[in-house]
Amino acid sequence: MKIDEQQKLHKLYIVDQSISLIKVFWPLFLIIVVKEGVNSSAFLWMIGGSIAIFLLGLLFSYIGWKRFSFTLMSDRIMIHSGVFFREEKTIYYGRIHSVNVQQKLLHRLFGIAQVMIETPGGKEKSDGVLSALSLSYANELAVMLRNRKMDAQQSREADADHVQMEQQAQEIVASAAIDSSTTSEEQLNPKVNINLKTSELLKAAATSLNFGLAIAFIAGLYSFGSQFLDVLLPESFIEDTLNPQYLLRAGLIVITLLVLAVIAVVWLLSLLLYVIKYSGFTMKEQQDQLLISYGLFEKKTFVIDPAKVQAVLVRQSWLRKPFGYVEIGIQVVSAEEKENLVLHPFIALQDVNGILQQILPKFIVPEKEKIVSAPKRAFLYYWRTPLIIALLLTSALFFFFEGYALWSLGLVPLIWLVMRASYKAAGVLLEKNQLTLRFGALTKTICLIHRPQIVSLSITRTRGQRRKQLLTISAHALGSLIPYKVKCLDEQHILPVWMWYRRNK
């Protein structure tokens, strides 16, 4: 590892950035192919424009590569970048929060990787990104930065409490002298080493229906599929199917079959994307840190300090509930706000505490019977507003479309069932300095959080809820975009939580 010497990114950075620029325009290319065909002038213009964009991307990528450099120094890393405006970043090793190595699909094809350096307070993106390094060098650099980070932290602790550090150093030396063989054996065989089997991956994928993907698929089908539907379906099929008279006879059956077909396609797509994302999932302990890695095409590796975990989220979707399986997520302070950090994607609920005891011993999932659920008088506040909105929407559809809006009647019982599930999931428990919040409808979430990790805690209620002696509790952890919120719980169970938080405050 070169110290005090200016270094460059891998030259494949130029190609990677150019191809990434082309990826931005492929949806437009797809639209032109579907709408105009491959023999149209618009298609030829698109081909010429793509070539021009690629060449322009090569030029700017080369300039960006030429003007990008980084220097490893004894106490910091300096990054110089910028095409039109020069930018210099200085990241001291002691300020580094985490160092992650990631590989996108193109990176894996080229044998390169990117190193993402994060510091506390990073918001939209990582503070330092080295976009293209050889995979071996990226892993070596990540290890070096993590070691320098730990050394810097130990140095600060030594300055703060020199006597304590001397005692720790003596204990380490004594332990190393006595148990050197044991230590080396533990490094080769870490206490935690979890690999997700292929059968478990397929089960997890089969029980993770992605509703966001479903909405995107339906929107795409509506945007691009109209021409194909005209060819595949009989003329005026949709108009005849939605005709009120036909709808009362056989139209509902046809619509139901179409809905089931769409759900089946979405389920298959969701299964495929899940397998691609979490293929090769591994979690192991390395130097008192957790190393989580997964991804078939885009390989992601996260190094997590267990002491920095803010909250544990145990999620159980409605598809996994009959089988008793859950997903364990964790909340950490990270610049990658959109990344859902998963500790284990598919594990039996009864085995969760066993995993947490090994990795995060201060967190524990309480028994179901201990969590206090929402009282019966709170059910009204769960279904009343959504059901009124559904009835108003259905009435408006009938007013404008008359008999064609018969399908909207299915929204009323569907929303009622969803709100009932949300009411059944609501619960709270304060035990052993741990606050447990349970919430969710289609996906039930059990949030485990301790007092030091709670940034803010609030309780609210309306006038009606005040008469019913109900309170809504909301806890915000460090690094979370939204608070963890449970509606309409009995105030006799919420007020002790509020006093516990204020007393510790």
TrEMBL record:
The YdbS-like PH domain sits at: 65-141, 280-358
Record field: transmembrane: 12-32, 44-65, 201-224, 250-276, 378-398, 404-423
What InterPro entries does the entry give?
Answer: UCP026631 (IPR014529), YdbS-like_PH (IPR005182)
* UniProt keyword list: Membrane, Transmembrane, Transmembrane helix
What protein name is recorded for this chain?
PH domain-containing protein
Give the species this sequence originates from: Paenibacillus yanchengensis
